[in-house]
Structures are given as C-alpha cells and as structure tokens.
Write a structure and sequence with these properties.
3 domains, five-stranded antiparallel sheet, TOPRIM_DnaG/twinkle, 347 residues, DNA primase, single chain, DNA primase DNAg catalytic core, N-terminal domain, DNA Primase, Chain A, Dna Topoisomerase Vi A Subunit, Chain: A, domain 2, alpha+beta
Length: 347
C-alpha cells in the first residue's frame, strides 16, 4: 500500500527544495539573496512576490508573500496557481511527481496543463475569487443582509461568501483578512467580468471596521451585478444593499446594482428591455447618474422611470422607516401595470 502524504508534509518536503521548486514553477523569477523574486504566484514577470528559500526566524522555507496583492501561502499554492489547477488531488499529484515520491492508490488522473497567469485586479482574477467563494446561505453574508432588513434572498447566486478575503489598507501596510461578500459583475451574456468585495465584521453584524469597506476589481464599465432574469422591465441602481431593499417589495423584478454612480450611468441595456427603473441615491452623484441614464435610455427607445427614496437610499428607507413605508413610497412611483405585475402579493 502506498503511503499517503498530507498537505503539511508535502509543503515541508517542497520547502526543503524551495529554490528548485521556484526555478521550475516560477521560471520568470530570479534569486535575490535568501528569496526568490517574481511577479506573482502565477509566474508573471515582476518583483512583488517573494518566496523564502531557507528557514529563518520569520518562518519556514517555501512561504511566500505578494506585496502587491496581499496574497500569501506555501509552495503547494505555487504549484496550484502556476499550473491553474483546482482540485487538491491534482496539486498533490504534481507535487509528488516533482519530489519523485510514490503515488497514492488508486493512481490519479494525469495533471492538467496550466492556464495563463491572471494579473492582479483582472477579470480572470475576479473569476477565480468568485470561484473560491461559497453560496451565502447560512453564512455571515446572510446575517449581514438580514441585519439590514433584507430577507428576500432568492435567486442571489451572483452573491457569495469568502471567509478570509485579503485586505490591505496601503501598499506598505500588513495584509489583513476579513470575511467578505463577493459579488460577480457580469456582462449581458452572463460572463463574469469583475467582482466586488464588501468586507464584513467577524459576526456579520455590520461591515468590517476598516477604512475601505468596499472594493471592485476587473472590467466594470457597462456591466453590473445581475440578480433575476431581465425581460422587458428591470431596475438599476448603485449599491447592492439598495437594490436588494427594492427587491423586498418587487421580488420578481430583475435588478442590476452597478456599484457606483459613474458605472450606473454607463450600464448596458438588454435587447429585450422596454422600461427601466432608475433607483437613485439621494445625492448629487445620484442625480448626475439619473440624468445621464435617462438620456441614454430614451435614445434607445426605452422608457425610463426614476424611483426616489425618502432618505438617502432605499436601504435607509427600509431600515429606518420600515417595509410598509418603503412599499408605499415606491408603489406610487411605479407604472400602474407594474404595480399589478410585480407587487400583487404585497398589495
């Protein structure tokens, strides 16, 4: 019977040959003193990632840190990311092959060929982040949204939970990890072009106590976080929480949080769209986005109707005024046929 080696043992064995591992999997880098320096863990050219080549008081050989992204890990992560592997079985097989160790039984399938590196902040990096996250049901993302009065969470597959999402306040600051709500930004065809991170407190009671609580990455212009299938009617606005608050009273209307006023003004329209509800935030930036979007919609032959909150945004109305007040305020702004179509249950 072949001996099975766990991840810790594999990482330690790889660490004893750290420089050889780096020369093989991070071939675009070079040695700098006691470190291997390269662009990132996916073998991009550059100098922001450092791999420790020998044991030091700061840590064991094989540990690495990317100063640009805050990512860190061991040499198993290097093998996984540089080759574009997903399953640990494939990573372990590749590591055993490099170390000339016996393979476990039954023999696993041959390892897959690597993918192209994903530059930091790119659409591919956003897709990988979303793929590494999990559905929100039963997580602190659900806790966070419910704390904000949002309970209609059906069809929210574009939202996920990451338990330890990297956060770095400044380029030279230590990397932190916080739980985060990860939102997929998609084009009209459903392809993920970006991702949005909202870092949360450890218990999900609020956003994380950090300076920058939200950040987006990838290709955002024209795209949005899409929830529900748009037909001839949809609603678009800025924030995820704002749009999910609207969905509390029109649960079957497709919504599209665009994440900022600038991106809301540039959102692309589905070919089937005939009426667009513009959910504005009550501030000058929201007014500018509203005006630009009305002009673009009218030029495309789409009826544009503005939905305005009483307070700062729909989530403030929901939390501070209550569901009934939000429903009453929105109801009088909807087209009469959409009141019957989308608010029938709550009427």
């Amino acid at each position: 019977m072949m001996t099975r080696i766990n991840a810790s043992d594999l990482a330690q064995r790889l660490g004893r040959q750290a420089e050889a591992v780096c020369r093989h999997y991070l071939s675009n880098g070079r040695r700098q003193g006691g470190y291997w320096q390269v662009g990132d863990v996916r073998n991009a050219r550059g100098r922001s990632m450092f791999v420790r080549l020998r044991d030091t008081p700061k840590g064991p050989a094989g540990k690495w840190n990317d100063a640009a992204t805050g990512e860190h890990g061991d040499l198993l992560d290097v093998i996984r990311e540089s080759l574009g592997l997903i399953d640990f079985t494939d990573v372990a097989e590749e590591a055993r092959s490099f170390l000339s160790m016996p393979q476990p039984e039954p023999p696993p399938a041959p390892s897959r060929q690597g993918r192209a590196p994903a530059p930091s902040g790119s659409s591919e990096a956003a897709r990988r982040l979303f793929a590494m996250s999990q559905p929100i049901a039963g997580t602190i993302v659900e806790t966070y949204l419910r704390k904000r009065g949002i309970t209609a969470l059906h069809g929210t597959g574009s939202l996920r939970f990451h338990p330890r999402c990297y956060y770095r306040p400044e380029d030279d600051s230590p990397t932190e990890t916080w739980p985060a709500m990860i939102a997929a930004v998609t084009d009209l065809g459903g392809t993920i072009t970006g991702a949005h991170r909202t870092w949360l407190s450890l218990d999900g009671s609020d956003k994380a106590p950090i300076d920058t609580q939200r950040k987006a990455m990838g290709d955002l212009l024209g795209h949005a976080v899409r929830i529900g299938m748009p037909g001839d009617v949809m609603a678009a606005g800025e924030g995820i929480e704002t749009m999910l608050s609207l969905r509390q009273i029109v649960p079957d209307m497709a919504i599209a949080p665009a994440l900022s006023a600038a991106h809301l003004a540039a959102i692309l329209f589905p070919s089937t769209l005939r009426r667009l509800y513009i959910v504005r935030d009550n501030d000058p930036a929201g007014d500018g986005a509203r005006d630009n979007l009305i002009e673009r919609a009218n030029a495309a032959g789409i009826e544009a109707i503005v939905l305005s909150p009483v307070l700062g945004d729909c989530n403030e109305d929901l939390r501070l005024l209550g569901l009934d007040a939000l429903r009453s305020g929105i109801r009088v702004q909807l087209a009469p046929q959409d009141v019957a179509r989308f608010m029938a249950i709550a009427a």
